[in-house]
Write a structure and sequence with these properties.
317 residues; UDP-N-acetylmuramoyl-L-alanine:D-glutamate ligase; four-stranded mixed β-sheet; 10 helices; globular; binds adenosine-5'-diphosphate; binds magnesium ion
């Protein structure tokens, strides 16, 4: 069946305020510190992934929730300008647009998030017509969106019934419980895309390969799990198959905000081409690495040609 959309992304949409400095620690006691750079840009794991996929040439729609305010309008306009269809996004009255302040240092980063309208999104906000038009449905930031989480098994199940595949990037759980009904979602998920820390926390083990195996086992037999390991690349497992390990290319990192989301887009672009796991991981790792070229989540994102050129020679171990 031909479908008008490659990818429907459901999840968090918000601006990121990125504070970049070799040492971005704030000083309390009403002290003012001068830092290198403060930039307002597109944020939200799901939205950064949607923009990355559009940059790769996929036809992408985003469903998320913003408030009826300047930050919400600015963010949706910026996302639309990157070729993502935002007509299915919801404007929630009486709740501000969510926002993150990211303190991006030389080695590490800290994130302060007010979820605002992010937490208002429900699975029932996703237009059925969009689900029917999509080849794949991806959701991000599971633990920031309890209302969406509750309806996600139903949404993913409906997407699958309509012939689409599904993926989930859980992202971090600020509550530290790593549950929120995830098991029911995994039963309807084709691809799970956590980073290393998230995978270990979700699986309750201390090794990424074991985590991949444990999580794949929770996915109804054939789920693919791809775990992002920062400068160490990624490891993936499909169902009960052997683990595949892909080394990251050496890159000059400006900052790694959104690298995991660009990775998701690269993985899904190759997945939609029905490539084998090692090829999906190579395109994913290439997209993750290239996204670190610029400050913030979206400005370094790769074109398809750039990503394929870097992915081609990468080794799968
Ligand atoms: N320093 C780096 N060097 C090369 N590639 C990187 C680097 N940091 C991230 N990447 C790429 O981006 C992907 C995702 O980054 P990671 O930091 O693991 O995810 P997340 O953003 O979800 O925490 C990695 O798997 C890797 O391919
Ligand atoms: Mg992530």
């Amino acid at each position: 069946m031909t479908r008008a959309l490659d990818l429907l992304v459901v999840g968090d949409v918000n601006p990121d305020i990125v504070v970049a400095d070799p040492d971005p620690q704030p000083l309390f006691g009403q002290a003012e510190r001068i830092v290198d750079t403060i930039r307002l840009t597109i944020g939200g794991s799901s939205t950064i992934a949607a923009c990355a996929a559009a940059r790769l040439g996929l036809r992408v729609a985003l469903v998320g929730a913003v408030g009826d305010d300047a930050l919400g309008r600015l963010t949706l306009d910026a996302v639309a300008a990157r070729g993502v269809d935002v007509s299915g996004c919801r404007v929630v009255q009486g709740v501000p647009t969510g926002a993150s302040v990211i303190l991006a240092g030389a080695e590490d980063r800290a994130i302060l998030t007010a979820t605002g309208a992010i937490g208002e999104l429900r699975a029932s906000d996703v237009p059925e017509a969009l689900v029917r038009r999509a080849r794949h449905v991806h959701a991000g930031s599971f633990f920031l969106q309890p209302r969406l989480a509750a309806g996600l098994p139903g949404l993913f199940g409906a997407a699958r019934s309509a012939g689409a595949t599904t993926s989930l990037d859980p992202n971090f759980d600020p509550d530290g419980r790593w549950d929120a009904g995830l098991a029911a979602v995994l039963a309807e998920t084709d691809v799970l895309l956590p980073n290393g820390g998230e995978a270990l926390a979700l699986a309750g083990v201390d090794d990424p390969v074991r985590a991949a195996r444990v999580l794949a086992g929770r996915g109804g037999g054939s789920m693919t799990v791809a775990i992002k390991l920062g400068p160490d690349g990624a490891v993936g497992v499909r169902g009960e198959g052997d683990p595949v390990d892909v080394v990251a290319p050496a890159v000059d990192v400006v900052d790694a905000i959104g690298a995991g989301d660009a990775f998701d887009a690269g993985f899904l672009a190759a997945w939609l081409d029905e490539r084998p796991l090692d090829a999906c991981l190579r395109l994913a790792v290439a997209c993750g690495a290239l996204s670190t070229r610029a400050l913030g989540g979206v400005d370094g994102q790769a074109t398809r040609d750039e990503a394929e050129a870097l992915a081609g020679p990468l080794a799968a171990r």
